[in-house]
Amino acid sequence: MIVITGATGALNGATVDRLLDLVPATDVAVVARDVTKARRFADLGVTVRHGDYADPASLPGAFDGADQLLLVSSSDPGADAVALHRTAIDAAVAAGAGRILYTSHQNAVLDTPFKPGRDHAATERLLAESGLPWTSLRNGFYLHSLAWLAGPWRETGVISVPGDGPVSWTSRDDAAAAAAQILASNGKYDGPTTITATSAPTFAEIAGIASEVTGRTITLDIRDEQDWLAAQIAGGTQEFMARFVLGFYQAARRGDFAGTDPLLGTLLDGEPATVRDFLSR
Question: Rounded distance, CA 72 to CA 107, Å?
Fold first, then answer.
């Protein structure tokens, strides 16, 4: 049995959809905090179970019989993500899961300015200490995030950011397809497994691509960090969230998202989506 958490979310929901092309629905169970949102999977013959990382008592039944268990990482910037992940991993051990897979990130390092990277690194350490076989899906930074991380450049003609560096912008749909292939391989991929696009353009390079796609001149403006923060807060963003996002640009500047790997293209049996593809749409 393959058990997948977070299936009502975009990433793992797409993973389940792709997985059902590879294995029978009867071999899959999904776990959701609100089972009514997972009705479409039940209609396909998938087992739907209630489970919530914040409710430890709900997890033993949710994870029961899992030969493979895909844990989605917490997406709440304000949550103690590592504590939630520890609860889920402990429950997986108690349930006798055969293997834990976890949606990690390519910058899973303890000293990154980007908080989720620190959380992923700490969670991978918990996985290594769990005693179970494990696979961390180190996905590249999701390509759709470029729509807001690059700012309103289509209106202004300027990509205005507080830092620049290479980022292997990776399609979430491609990452989901890769996760499905890895799950269907039944343990072929072990430990940290990097899933990224094949290139890592900087914002300066993205400005050039945007210029070619639109037929306009799109320029890059590197803002002072404090000026950028002040503008975000003045525009209504909570200071906590503005500083959280600033950590991305700081991590990009030091190269935390620069790595690429050919594995994604191999799993897709084709070329992963690119920044040019995204901007063209």
Answer: 16
